Structures are given as structure tokens and as C-alpha cells.
Amino acid sequence: MIQKFGRINLPFIRLGSPSNYHPTKLFENSGYKQFNLLNNKLILCLEDIFLKNAITTRQYSTPTHTKNSELPETSTKPTGNSYHPLYGCYTIKRTFSDNCNKMAPTLAPKVKLNNGYEMPVLGLGTYESKNNEGEIAVKHAIDVGYRHIDTAYFYQNEAEIGKAIKDKIAEGVVKREDIFLVTKLWNIHHEPDRVEGACRKQLELLGLDYIDLYLMHLPVGYKYVNEETLLPKNDDGVLQLSDVDYLDTYKAMEKLVKLGLVRSIGVSNFNSEQLQRILDNCEIKPVTNQVECSPALNQRKLTQFCKERNITLTAYSPLGRPKPDEKKPEFYYSEKTKALADKYKKTPAQIILRYLVDIGVIPIPKSSNPKRIEENFNIFDFQLSPEDIAVMDTFHTGERLVPFNLIKGQNHKYWPFSIEF
Ligand SMILES: NC(=O)c1ccc[n+]([C@@H]2O[C@H](COP(=O)([O-])OP(=O)(O)OC[C@H]3O[C@@H](n4cnc5c(N)ncnc54)[C@H](OP(=O)(O)O)[C@@H]3O)[C@@H](O)[C@H]2O)c1
């Protein structure tokens, strides 16, 4: 059946029609009985369907419109045969075949940051995802439903991460504002007059107009040699540190917010005293402190400290980088975790990540394996009971997986890990 639709004809497909395609599956739970195709492209607001919300429909005028914002909004939801041709849903450029066999992904819940922006409570880590691996991983992750991506200048993959995001925007899978991109100022750029240049260079690598969240990677600066020397060492292999005060670095980062280059700023690997010093001396509150956090180092005290100050805690190395040969970390391979996995019909990784979400932190597991990217995301259909959270708490030893050995032992005044939290 062809329906006259503004200036173009749209084929109208009904649920249950003897179609060779299966996009109807996408809409089975959405209340839609019909949907439209335009030049073999779906023209429904997929994200809304993914969220299983009533779809905000928009008046369709011409096929040349590409932005929702250009279209008048209505609250009409098309249902069954009463679908009104004037209120066709609109946008996405995903091709029909892209969607054929994919079910709508669930998105992660978001936490409201102290500046009003929202951050998904699970992100994709990308350390060591390079040489195309990062690009492929991020594209797959976005398809799966990840909207929070974590990278850094140090990871040397910002160009491919940015490309993956731009490609997904071009495909119409997401809009820029759907993505929460986190990257970090590297330690060689702590001199205040290097900060803006470093950030602009990272934006150029990413190919984006702004960064959602820019973190100071570490409170300790390194000596600047050149842009490529990320770990400056002397002839004896000793890492060359700088004594730039992280307060001065942070104040230079505040300017980036004012310039509109970044939306939020935060810190990483800061202890509670360093965080308090930032709060006491700076204008813009950090929105997060990204630190190592897993069942072995659950950061309960630092999380509470942050929470009292309306700062989130992002959990890096949440899975403890599992090593099957060594059966480490213990919390991943333990029978206790396996028993919980059996109980909830989940995997150990899912139990660990859900535990972290349940204790109020934001894990960013890294994977470049498609199955594990999916596995790590599939944690929003269950919750651990308080008793089972207590079981996971027993793995806490306080031991660090990422001890920053090259700095440790240099007695630097800003070394963060010499106090309890
Ligand atoms: N701010 C900082 O100083 C800092 C420091 C470290 C990390 N980070 C950030 O945090 C992210 C995560 O931390 P991380 O990479 O250190 O450690 P992680 O996420 O705990 O572990 C990553 C490792 O686990 C494997 N893996 C992923 N999912 C798995 C699963 N379901 N089952 C078994 N193995 C799995 C990955 O291999 P595959 O890829 O093969 O799946 C990878 O080798 C980093 O990528 C980075 O973005 C920040």
C-alpha cells in the first residue's frame, strides 16, 4: 500500500505483513502498528523506541529535512490504522538492512552531574584499543547502546574514537548530543599555558567541536619534551616529573569550559585531600573523580566523600583486567562470584559491573571483543540484593592493580596514593 505523504510517496508496511524483512520486531513493544520507509530507510525516532517511551512524533514535511529541531513537535502518537500521515515520525538515516535483525538496545540510565549535564552510568573504556581496534569497538558499542566512551591523549586512539563517533552520527544511529565523550589532559601538559593547546589538539584529533568531559589524568605532571614523548625518561630510565601545581592546571582547564571547548571538567587519580584542595580553591566543581575501582578496591570511602560533595566516582579497571591463565583477579574467578552469576543467570563480569553500579559508581570496562562489549552492557535488567552486595564487598583488599610504578617511590609531593583514600 502506498500512502501519499507530502511531496513523496511512502510505502506503508503493516505489522504481520508478509514482508521478507523483520524490522517489525523493533516495534513490537513500542505500541506501533505501522511504520514508514523512505527510500529503503526507516523514518522513525529509534532512540525513543529504544527507550520504550511514547514516541514524540514530528510533522513530516519534505525528505530534505534532516534535523528534528527544524520540525514542529506534536504529542500525537500514531497507533494502528488511525496513523495520521501528517504526523509521521522522523529522522534516522539507518538503512533498512542495518535494522533488520537488530532489536532495539536498552540505554544505560544516566546520573545528573553537579552542573546539570547527564552521564550514562556505564561507559566503554578504550585503553590499548588502537590500530583500528578502538574504532571497531566504539562503533559496535554504540550499536549495542553504549553512549559514554572513555579515552585519553595517552591512549593515542582519539582519532579513531572520534571517527567511530562521527561515522555513527553520519549513519543516523546517534546524534552528537547522545554521546558522552570523556578524554583526558596528559601529564606532560600540566603547565597552565599548555592546557588550551593540548585540548585543541585533542579536539582536532577527535574531529569534534567539544568534549563532554575533560579530566586531568593525574595530579602529578611530567616534564614536557615534545608532543610525542609521553613518558619522558632520563638516561637511567627514570621518569622525569614536573612540580606544576595541579591547582594551576585545573584553573587552566576551567577556562576551557568558558571557551566552550569542553562541557564539564573533572579529575582522575586524585585522593580526597587533593579533591578538597580543588574544591577550596577553584571555581568550577569537578563532576567526577575517575579512579581505579573494582571489588578488590571498592572505594567505598572515597565514593562517600565524593557523594557528600556532589561529585561522581568513575570506576576504571572495574574488571581487574582478567587473566585466564593466572585466574586473576580473585574476584572475577572466585566460586562466590560464580555462584552469584548462576543465581542471577548472568556472567561473573556482569555480576561485578552490576555490583559497581549498585554501590553508586560508574564503571567503564574496556573491551574490543564484540561479545564482551555486549556482555558488559547487559546489566540493566537485574540488581544485586543487599546480601549479595555484601558478598562482593568481601573481595575488598585495598590492593591496587594500577600502581603507577614509574612515579611511585619518587616521593613526589602530589603522589596521590600515600593516604587511605
Ligand atoms: N584514569 C586512569 O588513570 C585510567 C587507568 C586505567 C584505565 N582507565 C580507563 O578505564 C578503562 C577500563 O580499565 P582497564 O582497561 O584498565 O581494565 P578492565 O576494563 O577492568 O579490563 C579490561 C580487560 O578485560 C578484558 N575484558 C573485558 N570484558 C571482559 C569480560 N566480560 N570477561 C573477561 N574479560 C573481559 C578486556 O579484553 P578484551 O578487550 O579482549 O575483551 C581487557 O583485557 C580503560 O580502558 C580506560 O579507558 C583509566
Automatic annotation (TrEMBL):
Q: Which organism is it from?
A: Musca domestica
Task: Give every NADP-dependent oxidoreductase domain span.
Answer: 124-393
Q: What is the lineage of its organism?
A: Eukaryota, Metazoa, Ecdysozoa, Arthropoda, Hexapoda
Task: Give a GO molecular function annotation for the protein.
Answer: oxidoreductase activity
Q: Which residues form a coiled coil?
A: none
The name under which this protein is listed is 1,5-anhydro-D-fructose reductase isoform X3
Q: Which domain of life is it from?
A: Eukaryota
Against PROSITE patterns, the record matches this protein to: ALDOKETO_REDUCTASE_1, ALDOKETO_REDUCTASE_2, ALDOKETO_REDUCTASE_3
CDD domains tied to this protein: AKR_AKR2E1-5
